[in-house]
Amino acid sequence: MVLESFQVGEGEVPTVLLHGFLGSGRNLRSLAVAWSEAEPQRRFLLPDLTGHGTSPALPPGADLDTLARDVHETARAKGFTGPVDWVGHSLGGRVSLAASLLFPSEVARVTLLDITPSPVPVNLLESGMVLNLLMQAPDTAPSRKEMRADLMGRGLSAGLADWLVMNLESTPEGGVRWRFGRQALAELHGRVNQRDLWAAVERPGAKVRCIRGGRARYVPDEDLARMERAGCPVATLPEAGHFVHVEALPALLQWLLQAH
């Protein structure tokens, strides 16, 4: 399945940037632009993952492998040849690890932005809380403003509400509705976070690196130690939470530009 996507840069080093759960490719646009300016030899592909943004809906039973195959197919369809660098935030990082197991010779390196290869307890996931509130929201609303107010009335912060209403589309009747299938996303959420992906980090020849937010809980110290024992360097941005590419972009970019 070929996904909705856009590109940044015109270099020869193919790099895929993948967003997190309930996001879209444009969430990483600022990172792609800054990275492209620093390393013009790169060419970035930013897709909307399957079931997200304006990409096709999730098929029944979709899992990490489904998403990884769709990104791989999209990259090839867009002319990304040879081994590709995969960089993923949260869900995007887990998709990248799955891709490295499916296509080991075609994934040059995986860069994880605040995510672990371990199964992630749902009670640690901010995305789980957001998803629960999203499932309670109405299917439609007269306007984005009113849907935003409904979400905030359920306890969502203004910032998260603003982020979620980016996933609304206009209806023929003049109101708005959710662009994605909420039930399918809820089912995907459980599948992708239950999977153990350590094989992608600990297999011979694996090239993986990770950066975590010091205020986030997605990469615990015991996982950091295990990754480093496997040859996967891990850095910490003390001032950042889970959204390292938003909260600490200059520091993240400096780290990305270093050889690891």
Automatic annotation (TrEMBL):
One of its GO terms (molecular function) is hydrolase activity. InterPro entries: AB_hydrolase_1, AB_hydrolase_fold, Serine_prot/Carboxylest_S33. This is Pimeloyl-ACP methyl ester carboxylesterase. It comes from the Bacteria. The lineage of its organism: Bacteria, Pseudomonadati, Myxococcota, Myxococcia, Myxococcales. Residues 16-129 form the AB hydrolase-1 domain. Keywords: Hydrolase. Belongs to the peptidase S33 family.
